[in-house]
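ARCHIVE CARD
SHELF: 3
SLOT: left
DATA:
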Amino acid sequence: MASLSAASILKRTLIIVSLLGLTSFGLVLMSRHNDCDVDPVFSERFASSLKTLETFALVDMGDVELDDVLKAVGYVSAVSEIKSQIYLGDAVLYEQKAFKKERKRWLKWYDENKCNMTTHKADSLHRVNLNLRPEAAPN
């Protein structure tokens, strides 16, 4: 058995890390999935928003900018029409139990709707549900 070079080990590590990153939340960012087209931009935005909320609720609130948390919860709530129990008062608080319950619902919604959702449709829902002007939509 030949020993692996440092470059080979690094390449394998990067592949594993990449695969873990793509499959966190159970979202696979592909253009085809279960015989349907999945909009990769929408899928990435949804996954990224969930990752931001996960970091805030489960890892360390200080690791995420408050503005990013508000954008993320606004996006997934508006697009899925599943409202969050995040507390937006003098301090922003998100109980782990509430997040885990909501994440389950958001992932179920994603799985059921990923074939019919486009970036354009998601951005429209986001604007309508949050009462945003078209120029205020996320990039």
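SLOT: right
DATA:
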Amino acid sequence: MTVRDRIRWWEPIGASYRRSLVELCAVGILRPLFWIRVLGFSFVVIAGLIAWLVSMYPTIAIPWAQLITKALLGALLIFCACALVAVVPRRIEIGPDEIRILRGQSHARIILERIENVFIDDSASTPSHLVVLYRTRIETVETLSFAIKPTVDREALDSLVRQINSAVRSKLTHDSVLDGPPG
């Protein structure tokens, strides 16, 4: 497969931002209770360490300002990582044998053998979305949706989607022939 067989695009910022906020809300990071738990857990761990240090070294001088500053910096780093997830869009690469999702230094890959169905959803959402149904390693079916940038060549993308779906259907009929009739 050559580089030209692939279609690549960055997800539009608006769609990527909304999706990231939904994902962060689902995880609970945007809830105040999450931050109360993080700071509470940090306080308990630090208090335990301080109690241990004082019991081991009774004359130790505790740098309270530095401890409080480091605890707040930890929470700030978690917040900045969440903001980075919300701001950095995904890069989508689709080829006839795989779909890659790249963000920053991480990536995910869905190989053709795991894909169940691929289609373009043009219903009422702006921009259009590419929807991929695939099987995970534990054989559950998951759905991913990618916003399609308006500059993407839709004819080439439609052709590639048809090619992937025909390969998926031929794989399914081939597998059912190998399995034989039930009974």
